[in-house]
Specification:
This protein is α+β, with helices and mostly antiparallel strands. The chain has 7 helices and 31 strands. It has helices at about 140-150, 155-160, 215-220, 235-250, 255-265, 330-345, 355-360; strands at about 50-55, 60-65, 70-75, 80-85, 90-95, 100-105, 110-115, 120-125, 140, 165, 175-180, 185-190, 195-200, 205-210, 270-280, 285-290, 295-300, 310-315, 320-325, 330, 370, 375-380, 385, 390-395, 395-400, 405-410, 415, 420-425, 435-440, 445-450, 450-455. The strands form 7 sheets. Strands 13-12-11-8-7-6-3-18-20 form a 9-stranded antiparallel beta sheet. Strand 1 and strand 2 form a beta hairpin. Helix 6 crosses helix 7. The longest helix is centred in the middle third of the chain and has 17 residues, at about 235-250. The radius of gyration is 26 Å and the shape is elongated. The model is unreliable at about 1-45 (pLDDT under 50).
């Protein structure tokens, strides 16, 4: 299953108790909706995630099964400073990576996605989840996904981030499947107020449904595929495990088609709203929805993740087949329209006040571009000069927060008074032969150029 957004209480503090079953970027908004009661114990809806890997491929497939089919595919930019929404913990971070996400509950609250580094994060409902309560800054469950796609490159990064942040205790009970470009994967659960991460040898089956991973493994160990149904959580786990094993052991000429067929095998009539396939190695995302069955694909290489670009999106139910590019700017009005439609179609949330939806839809307006330190666009060039000749070394740079300061060095030692973009050396002698570099500094950081070698001959 997926998630239900929930109203969060203020943070509490208690001693930290964190357990790792195997082997790490860190303003303030409050959800103040009087009388908004979110029911977490809703009827179970099935979701399935599986990881298909062999020598050539790293592919994550996911079925999203829930009430509404509305959603957006969003291109999230790198280099943005963000603030946690609603938990009042003060957590802030800067996005290191751009990402493509599938969003039903608003911009910055994705169901899952793929980032530039090749990290995939997916979520499913897990009754019995208990998030920790301690002094670490907290974040809501869906924004935790965006945080990881913003800041983490590997499975190890995701697991290690638990040392600095936690999911808020009142968040919807979820567990997560994470995979990276190296072929590593993890199931991340929160049981008894502690993070439990299954990776490596403790993750023999790269799949996840709606039981704890240990319970799923136990069931799979005594159930043959022909005995497993295609509807229940445990049955779907066995079916997904069979697909993953077949993929790993047999030649596959169409890995994306194989992944979609495996997702069809656990498709839930009237509940599977969309299926996504993330080809990590090729940095491509494929998807189709219940309303638009044609397969679409998005290549991350075609997208503009620069911080100064406009955040763009695509209706997940677009009827255009083949290669698509999200090209519509994100707007508060569109964000609100999707949120309103999804909340009204989700039975436990249908009476959510419009004022709350308006507040949630406005959240991304608080995101700003993080000032960039200087970036050198033209490095000083090596050159050979005759004794008594004249040498000029120069640098050009751009970035935020000018003016820039310059400091040249010779063989790593600062040259007194050499504080301009140009370094002019006249009547050179053999004593001037050296490696020269320049450090460019602004209010938000500094960058050092490549070395330029001056040869006097």
């Amino acid at each position: 299953m997926s998630w239900l957004p929930s109203v969060r209480a203020a943070d509490q503090s208690a001693p930290s108790d964190i357990r790792f079953a195997s082997r790490r970027c860190p303003r303030r908004h409050r959800w103040a909706v009087a009388g908004l009661a979110i029911i977490l114990a809703t009827p179970a809806r099935p979701c399935t995630t599986l990881f298909l890997r062999n020598a050539e491929n790293r592919i994550v497939g996911n079925n999203y099964d829930y009430y509404a089919v509305d959603g957006r595919v969003i291109v999230n930019r790198r280099g943005l400073r963000k603030a946690v929404y609603s938990t009042n913990s003060g957590l802030q971070w800067v996005s290191r990576f751009g990402s493509v996400t599938f969003n039903q509950w608003g911009h910055e609250f994705p169901n899952g996605g793929l980032n530039e580094a090749g990290l995939v994060v997916e979520q499913m409902m897990l009754d019995g989840t208990q998030y920790p309560i301690d002094g670490r800054p907290s974040i809501t469950e869906m924004q935790w996904i965006q945080y990881q796609l913003d800041c983490s490159a590997t499975v190890q990064d995701v697991v290690a981030s638990d040392a600095g942040i936690r999911i808020h205790q009142d968040s919807t009970p979820l567990h997560f499947f994470v995979a990276d470009a190296a072929g590593n994967a993890a199931v991340i659960e929160f049981l008894g107020g502690r993070l439990v991460a299954h990776t490596g040898d403790s993750l023999p089956i790269p799949a996840l449904t709606n039981h704890t991973y240990e319970a799923s493994l136990a069931y799979a160990s005594i159930t043959r595929p022909e005995q497993a149904d295609h509807v229940s959580s445990l049955g779907r786990f066995v079916q997904a495990a069979t697909s993953a094993a077949t993929f790993a052991q047999s030649p596959v000429t169409d890995p994306v088609g194989f992944a979609l067929a495996a997702l069809d095998n656990v498709n839930q009539p009237n509940w599977t709203r969309w299926s996504t396939v993330c080809d990590i190695g090729r940095r491509r995302v494929y998807f189709r929805t219940q309303a638009a069955r044609a397969i679409k694909q998005i290549a991350l290489a075609d997208l503009d993740f620069r911080p100064e670009a406009t955040t763009r999106m695509l209706d997940i139910n677009t009827t255009a087949p083949g290669v698509v590019v999200p090209d519509w700017p994100i707007s508060r009005a569109d964000n609100l329209a999707v949120l309103t439609s999804v909340f009204r179609q989700t039975t436990p949330l249908a009476s959510t006040p419009l004022s709350y939806l308006q507040q949630r839809a406005a959240y991304p307006d608080s995101i700003v571009i993080e000032p960039r330190p200087p970036a050198i666009t033209s490095h000083p060039a090596s050159q050979t000069v005759a004794p008594g000749g004249h040498a000029v070394l120069s640098v050009t740079a751009n970035g935020d927060a000018p003016p820039f300061a310059y400091q040249w060095s010779r063989n790593g030692i600062a040259i007194t008074g050499a504080t301009a973009p140009l370094l002019s050396l006249t009547s050179v002698t053999s004593a001037d032969a050296a490696d020269y570099a320049v450090t460019v500094t602004s209010a938000v950081g500094s960058t050092t150029s490549r070395f330029a070698r001056l040869v006097v001959a």
